[in-house]
Amino acid sequence: MEESHVHDIARVIQMALAPAFLLSAVGALLNVFANRLARIVDRTRALEGRLDPSSARPPELEVLKRRGGLVRWAITMGTGAALLVSLVIGVAFIGFLAKMNFSMLVAGLFVAAMGALTLALTFFLREVVLAVGSLEAILPRAVVRSFHPRDDDETPLGRS
């Protein structure tokens, strides 16, 4: 193999490393999203197991359903971002090996990957905001007071 080809291959590998690190970060985010979804599913099962069939559905179940949908979309967009980053790496190598200029395709795939990642993070942020915002409406008053203690409370939970 000629010396210039070795340098060319090394350059392509260097260019592929940044997307590979991005792929690792997206994988870590997907793990966070999946854990979040698992907690939502566990909480939903626990609530449904305690439901009396004749009673109305508690409002927390509706919030959990909305949260689950947001996390599902975050996972979908995160997985799409990972697939697009993988394509960026693959197309870059194919372009090098085939001696073809796929720079516009690589750039387009990268922009699409960043768009999908941005959407994934947006859905995740919305889910977190919904989860935190639902605390006051769903949790018992004693726990809510721990977040907003009154002057007459001696302890964060209002116990003497």
Concise structural overview:
Helices cover 81% and strands 0% of the residues. By secondary structure, it is an all-alpha fold.
Structural class: mainly alpha
Shape by Cα distribution: rod-shaped
Radius of gyration using CA atoms only = 24 Å
Structure annotation, total helices: 5
Largest sheet: none
Q: How many beta-strand runs?
A: 0
What gap, in angstroms, lies between the N and C termini? 80 Å
Query: Helices and strands, in N-to-C order?
Result: HHHHH
Question: Fraction of residues in helices?
Answer: over 70%
- Global mean pLDDT: 84
Q: What is the domain total for the residues?
A: 1
Give start-end ranges of low-pLDDT stretches: none
Oligomer: single chain
Strand content: under 5%
